[in-house]
Amino acid sequence: MELQQSLNAFVKLGEFLSQFTASPKSSDIDSALIDGFNHQLKLAKEHNGWFSQNNLDFALQSWTDALSKDNLETWTNAYDFNIKEPKTIAIIMAGNIPMVGFHDFLSVLICGHNVLVKQSSNDKHLLPYLAKYLEYVEPEFKGKIKFTEEKLEGFDAVIATGSNNTARYFEYYFKDKPSIIRKNRNSVAILTGEETDAQLSALSDDIFRYYGLGCRNVSKIYIPEDYNFDAFFNAVFKWKDIINESKYANNYDYNKAVYIMSEFDMLENGFLMIKEDPSFGSPIATVFYEKYKDVEKLRTHLETQKEHIQCIVADGYSDNEIAFGKTQEPQLWDYADNVDTVDFLLKI
Fold it and tell me: What keywords does the record list, in alphabetical order (predicted)?
């Protein structure tokens, strides 16, 4: 199967996904196919309370934008695709946000390999339908995509995403196979106190999008010692209605009760709690913070902790920083854990 065939198919998939966004691209897609995916979206919402309509809409728009002809060509032009013998690549997917494993799925097929997918039970409705759509627009994908709920067998390499605990199991179980094993990571923001209202408002998107469940969500902020939180709380107020969503509200109430009973110091505004804590991974409805005196010492500290950090949001901190509000808008060439998935797949 030629690379261009795969690219064309994923461009068509992007056009299909656009039918479920606010600005659908012009197409002659069969209405029955659209109705079918609408049904899968309905099932996804019913099955997983974290998959709200807003979160599904954002994920679909993000992948619609990513799967443009220009983006796909820019991404793939950086590599030499010359797979002589396709391998079978197993993917163990997380289920924290909608379609979180799609980039691995895309990468395997673009490289010309076969894919064996083991989905999370939290996100099992969307990708199988999209795989069928790919086979519909490009029949040569038939036989290259398989889903399983059983023990993984008959694969040559694996990409697995999970918690730190499951990662230890993955590393042992797949020790004899080429692998990418992803553990827990979180994202942080570095504030100076000079941020504009627009930047802080954008930061609130990095915090609250997907309820903060993604590894690219900001769960911790670093602040100067004399930082005043007033501007921060004013900027995040646009997300106030999130407390009306039951799963989020339940977590807010529970974590607030734990903090109060434990006599922890915290700040809160009715839908978000701010707590000083050295950890990176904060509970839902909570953002941790830590104070710093010297940026260079902070830089040294974060370098020693880089295996725990997915993104650093800042303005003028480093060449690799992410702009405020952009953590959940990665490009195709922005790889999880900074590990080049395509390079890995091309060298197997």
Answer: NADP
Residues in the chain, overall count? 348
> Residue 172 CB: number of other CB atoms within 10 A?
8
Q: Kindly calculate the radius of gyration of the chain based on its CA atoms and give it in whole angstroms.
A: 21
Phi and psi (nearest 5°) for 293? -100, -40
For residues 114 and 184, the answer to whether their CB atoms sit within 8 Å is no
From residue 240, how far is each of 50, 157, 205, 233, 271 by CA, in Å? Answer: 17, 44, 12, 10, 6
Residues 6+ apart with CB under 8 A from 337: 180, 182, 185, 310
Closest CA to 99 of 147, 51, 29: 51
pLDDT in tens, 20-58: 999 998 888 999 999 999 999 999 999 999 999 999 999
Q: Side chain identity at 175, as an amino acid letter?
A: K
- Distance, in Å, from the CA atom of 344 to the CA atom of 218, rounded to the nearest integer, reads 28
Domains of the chain: 3-184 (3.40.605.10), 186-313 (3.40.309.10)
Q: Which of 235, 224, 219, 218 is nearest to 194 (CA)?
A: 224
Locate 114 and state its tokens. 């076969």
Q: What is the Cα–Cα distance from 146 to 39, expressed in whole angstroms? A: 21
3-state secondary structure of 289: strand
